[in-house]
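Comment thread on ticket #2218

A.B. wrote:
> Attaching the input chain for the structure job we discussed in standup.
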Amino acid sequence: MDKDKIDKKDHILDVAEKVFSDQGYDGASTRSISGEAGVNMAMLNYYFGSKEGLFLAVFNRKINSFKNLLQDLGNDENLSAWNKVEAYIDLYAQRVVTNNCFQKMLYQEMSMNSRNQLSENISDILLQNVVEFHKILTEGIEKGEFKNDIDFEMVTATIYGTKNFIINAPQLTSMMLGYDIQDEKNLEEKFKPRIKSYLRKLLWAYLVKDQSQK
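C.D. wrote:
> Ran it. Output below, let me know if you need it in another format.
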């Protein structure tokens, strides 16, 4: 695919991400997305086939880019398992702050509790990154860095759940934290360093063996 076509697809996906975030899957239409993107319906349908295809393409682009970063991180033989967890936290916190629109869209769909093919496809996409993170935890156990009784699923839920509570209940959490969590400057300067510090301390205490256990 030539560069012009790739750029055009990325532009459509950027617009679609914003529209889906603002209006939800059911409220958004391919016609409104094509209008905002400045392309005709024939082009949108050619690239993505349907609204569901476009929606999944938005998810795939974001999740797969993160998956590639995680795979590179997991394959880095110069880092300890704990260093990889720290790097994962940094990557995750950065993406939460810089992809607020996507995070909102993700939460909207995952909180619907629908069991249709679309929700199953989204869950399958997200599970890819969970698997990559679990590989890092497994490596830490096998190398003797991490405790043997780690609850992989609860560790994952702790990381994602902390973000979901803060980001997706903005009125409550803004009152609790004392600053507007929807303000980009506050996200970057106050929330990002705070969640990184918190998750590092929490996971260090839970994952890493102390000297007497080695």
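A.B. wrote:
> Thanks. Noting for the ticket: The chain has ten helices and no strands.
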